[in-house]
Amino acid sequence: MGLFGIWAAKKLKKTLVYTLHTAYDDYVYYVMPKVLARMVGGKVLDKFLGFYAGRSKAIVGPSPKCFEYIKKSSHRKKVRILPNSVEMNLFDPTKVDDKSIKELKQSLNIPDNAFIACFVGRMGTEKSVDVTLEFLSKTLKENDNIYFVAIGDGPDLENLKNKANELKLDKVRFTGKVNHDELPTYYAMSKLYLTSSLTEMNSISMLEAMAMGLPVLQRMDEINKDQIVEGKNGYIFFNENDMYKHLKRLSEYSDEEYKRIRFEVEETVSQKDETGIAKKELEVYKKAMERARLQEMMKRKNKEKGMVKRIGDTIKKKI
Fold this sequence. Notes:
Rossmann fold, three-stranded parallel sheet, 11 helices, alpha/beta, six-stranded parallel sheet
């Protein structure tokens, strides 16, 4: 797709803007054997990344991680950080009725009064769901009314189910694939979004959860740590005990305390609606086009100067 974009931009004489939204190193094992991916995957991707960056007039990404990633390819181009947007109209907690939530809990065999933490994403190695399972197995007590629901499909789904069984995690549920328009009910059923992934740029699932009022409990990710404002839209954990401390405390919140944090969470994501982000993205494209126009103008002027100089030199020789 990227190569086609470069070809199309050149063929149609259009400005090229590169959008980087994935740390490809963490996903390369999907297209080549893991051993080979570890040996050459990073080097190959760095060359591709440099190729794209070098031909673009602007680079856009949803996280500071994008700049760090671009630096690996020896490019120092500025990356315009634009967070991912959320379909605020779809992920609206007021549009999910209590009956749907109750039925979903029953289908997953979860008590109506349970505290539910959820994760939405591909069930793949890069999402570190296995880390969450290990942390839960080391800390959850038998009398804790805390459930973890992993929502999504992927190559590691069966392995993760087996791991949960081996760890005797009877309060963990796997839903498999869920249609996008059904996700609001799963978020509405939950009280917290829990993730151990360290490969995210700016998780759309996390933003959807926040739009539904869920605080986020995220494993410490140094470059992305500013996406979580401690105590306002979520919390950061460093180890299993840290994770459990937050889980336990949140599960004991009164309705009034939980209502307050839900309001603050929704406030932090309200500016990330599709229209607002699209307008900012459009500004990036306009500036890139203007930059390309000015560069083309300078190129023509330099070409004209060179031509005039050559003509002058020829005339001097004849004189």
